[in-house]
Specification:
- 44% of the residues lie in helices and 3% in strands.
- The chain is mainly α and 149 residues long.
- The protein starts with 16 loop residues before the first helix and ends in a 16-residue tail after the last strand.
Length: 149
């Protein structure tokens, strides 16, 4: 192996400080892009989970209403001492424990809001939801159209 460098010149193998700084900067930029994308994905996931919860309760309410022949704007017959629709849905197996707890505001919306039922013992009018999220007006948290639920 021949060495073509002039005598007295030492060749260093490795990276300079400038090269290392550029690599670190590029890595930091890529990491920040990943974190921004992950937070946007999390917000979308939270929104989807909230919408799915509202839809599940709404579909169960309408199914129960249709199955037992109740009119909108009216209360169900009293069962187990209550006319609360969510309690009826839970006792008859239309919704599971976690959905029932969400109608009671015991479990919050994944995005940090709270669920509430404006009239827990009245079947809602067409176009109205039985249960609402407190974040429904912010950042398109709830879809604008839920008429087919």
């Amino acid at each position: 192996m021949t060495n073509n460098s002039p005598p007295g010149v030492v060749r260093h193998r490795g990276s300079t400080f400038l090269e290392l700084s550029v690599v670190v900067t590029i890595l930091l930029i890529l990491i920040s892009i990943v974190f921004i994308g992950a937070s946007a994905w999390k917000r979308g996931s939270d929104r989807s989970s909230c919408v799915l919860t509202l839809r599940s309760v709404q579909v169960a309410t309408r199914s129960y209403q249709n199955m037992y022949g109740y009119d909108t704007g009216l209360s169900p017959n009293s069962e187990n001492g209550t006319q609360d629709i969510a309690a009826h849905l839970f006792s008859k197996g239309y919704i599971e424990t976690n959905l029932y707890q969400q109608t009671r505001s015991a479990i919050p919306c994944p995005a940090g809001g709270s669920y509430h039922c404006p009239a827990p013992d009245v079947f809602p009018q067409p176009g109205q939801l039985y249960m609402e999220c407190s974040l429904s007006g912010s950042a398109e948290h709830v879809p604008t159209s839920h008429a087919d639920w």
